[in-house]
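RECORD TYPE: inverse folding
INPUT: C-alpha cells
STRUCTURE:
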C-alpha cells in the first residue's frame, strides 16, 4: 500500500524535502568550520571522499558528490593549486589520472573532520543512541533503494 497520497503530500512529510533541507541547514551551520581552513563545504567533501578512497579520480569524485565532471575538474584544479592534492597518471593507462591527498590536504581534512564530528555530536545530543543508529540505518536503506531505482521510471 502506498504511503503518500496526492491529497496529503506536503513538504513537512516529504522525505526528499526533509533530507535536502537538513543538508542545507547543516551546510550553512558548518560554513564557518570550513572557512576557518580556507575551503568550502564541497572542497572539504572532495578531500574527505579522496581520504576514504571513494574519489580516486575526478570522475569518481563527480559521481560520489553528485557534481558534473566539468565542475569537478575545476574543483580538483583548485585543490591541486592549494597543494592539498596531487594528480598522477597511471602507468597502465595514461588517460587515467589518480588523485591523492598531500600531507597538508590530509591535515586539513582531518582538522575539519574533528569539527564536523563535534558539530554532529552537538546537534544529536538530545537523540538517543538507538535513534541515531536507526536514522543511519534508514538512510542507508533509502540510499540502497534509490541506487537500485536510479534510471528506472517511477510509476
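DESIGNED SEQUENCE:
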Amino acid at each position: 500500500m502506498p504511503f503518500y497520497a496526492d491529497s496529503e503530500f506536503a513538504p513537512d512529510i516529504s522525505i526528499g524535502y526533509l533530507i535536502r533541507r537538513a543538508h542545507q541547514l547543516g551546510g550553512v551551520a558548518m560554513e564557518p568550520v570550513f572557512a576557518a581552513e580556507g575551503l568550502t563545504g564541497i572542497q572539504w567533501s572532495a578531500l574527505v571522499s579522496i581520504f576514504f578512497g571513494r574519489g580516486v579520480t575526478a570522475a569518481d569524485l563527480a559521481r560520489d558528490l553528485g557534481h558534473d565532471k566539468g565542475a569537478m575538474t575545476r574543483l580538483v584544479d583548485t585543490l591541486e593549486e592549494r597543494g592539498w592534492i596531487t594528480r598522477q597518471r597511471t602507468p597502465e593507462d595514461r588517460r587515467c589520472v589518480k588523485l591523492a591527498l598531500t600531507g597538508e590536504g590530509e591535515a586539513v581534512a582531518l582538522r575539519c573532520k574533528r569539527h564536523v564530528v563535534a558539530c554532529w555530536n552537538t546537534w544529536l545530543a538530545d537523540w538517543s543512541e538507538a535513534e541515531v543508529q536507526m536514522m543511519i540505518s534508514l538512510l542507508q536503506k533509502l540510499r540502497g533503494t534509490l541506487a537500485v531505482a536510479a534510471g528506472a521510471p517511477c510509476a
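NOTES: The beta strands are 85-89, 97-101.
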